[in-house]
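Students often ask why inverse folding is considered easier than folding. One informal answer: many sequences map to the same fold, so there is more than one right answer. In these notes we will look at a single instance of the problem. The structure comes first.
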């Protein structure tokens, strides 16, 4: 697919191809991030500046993050519950390596990010999907039916890629009660892992609820890739709920797996940058403006979708049941989107609107022609 898209750009010119395929942030990092980089580049005082550090990361960095996460999650967290990692994939692999026994199941509500399956496969786990409701909210009954004595982890992603849906506080509280009940029934802890790279990219006054307050045996994986627009720097962290039953053992296990999987430690400079910029982000209002521009344009041509409350993705229902065919029709109009197979939710496709406004505006005539072709 990517090879085909590269050919289109080469043939027609990049400006004439409307690429909504990849969630690659297009806003500049905030000024505070660049200021910290400059400050660090001119610092010659620390002889250990580029050296190895503890595998969990610098103590002073983890302390700074813990203070911020404590406010965000509304639960006191110490630096001992934080591990710095080389990106989300590293964090999730670190968790699964520490937690999963062979053939234990990770339950994942769909639609979801396609690479979750590979991270679980890496550690002999079993990926098991569970449907969400029509509006993409959690279907607690479906989750209850899917849990069995092999269930080890429930992995959620909120705000969700690809839908932009944010799971409500009420649904998370119901989920926490269910996981407590099932953990007692099967005499085995079921961990709740929440992947939250889009936590700060939310709109319309919506907040992302705390999972730590909803369930004690929980782990957060979060990122600076999207809210600071630095995905290529690969700096993330994971945080363990301090009320988890075996919190210390879990942390030690993940510090160990963080090393033996070959990551060793998160990038030293990027860790140092984070100390003084906790809570900073790109101008999220600009993403909201892009969302509104895209939604208003597509609604004129009768496209159907749930308006996302977070992320920079729009998950659109195909006007024909063969969504792969419709994705190819869009490709004929030089519009590049991602088909349902990436997210295990048929009849839909995803657009990433972290693009220039001109890309959005200039694509509308192609979207109209594609819809007209399906009507005729």
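Output (designed amino acids):
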């Amino acid at each position: 697919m990517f090879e085909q898209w590269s050919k289109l750009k080469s043939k027609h010119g990049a400006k004439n191809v409307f690429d909504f395929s990849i969630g690659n942030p297009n806003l500049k990092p905030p000024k505070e991030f660049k200021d910290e980089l400059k400050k660090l580049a001119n610092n010659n005082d620390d002889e250990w500046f580029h050296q190895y550090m503890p595998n969990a990361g610098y103590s002073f960095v983890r302390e700074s993050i813990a203070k911020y996460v404590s406010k965000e999650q509304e639960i006191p967290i110490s630096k001992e519950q934080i591990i710095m990692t080389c990106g989300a994939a590293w964090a999730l692999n670190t968790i699964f390596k520490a937690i999963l026994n062979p053939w234990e199941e990770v339950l994942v509500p769909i639609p979801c990010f396609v690479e979750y399956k590979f991270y679980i496969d890496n550690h002999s786990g079993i990926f098991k999907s569970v449907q969400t409701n029509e509006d993409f909210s959690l279907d607690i009954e479906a989750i209850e039916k899917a849990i069995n004595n092999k269930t080890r982890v429930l992995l959620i992603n909120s705000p969700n890629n690809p839908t932009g849906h944010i799971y409500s506080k009420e649904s998370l509280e119901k989920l926490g009660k269910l996981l407590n009940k099932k953990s007692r029934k099967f005499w085995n802890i079921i961990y709740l892992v929440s992947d939250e790279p889009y936590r700060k990219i939310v709109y319309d006054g919506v907040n992302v609820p705390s999972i730590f307050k909803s369930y004690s045996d929980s782990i957060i994986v979060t990122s600076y890739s999207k809210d600071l627009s630095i995905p290529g720097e690969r700096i993330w962290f994971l945080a363990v709920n301090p009320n988890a039953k075996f919190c210390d053992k879990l942390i030690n296990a993940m510090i160990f797996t963080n090393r033996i999987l070959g990551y060793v430690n998160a990038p030293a400079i990027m860790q140092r940058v984070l100390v003084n910029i906790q809570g900073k982000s790109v101008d999220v209002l600009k993403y909201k403006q892009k969302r509104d521009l895209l939604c208003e344009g597509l609604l004129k041509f009768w496209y159907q979708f749930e308006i996302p409350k977070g992320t920079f993705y729009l998950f659109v229902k195909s006007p024909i049941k063969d969504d792969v065919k419709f994705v190819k029709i869009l490709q004929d109009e030089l519009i590049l989107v991602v088909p349902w197979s990436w997210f295990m939710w048929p009849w839909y496709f995803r657009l990433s609107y972290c693009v220039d406004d001109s890309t959005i505006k200039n694509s509308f005539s192609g979207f109209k022609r594609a819809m007209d072709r399906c009507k005729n």
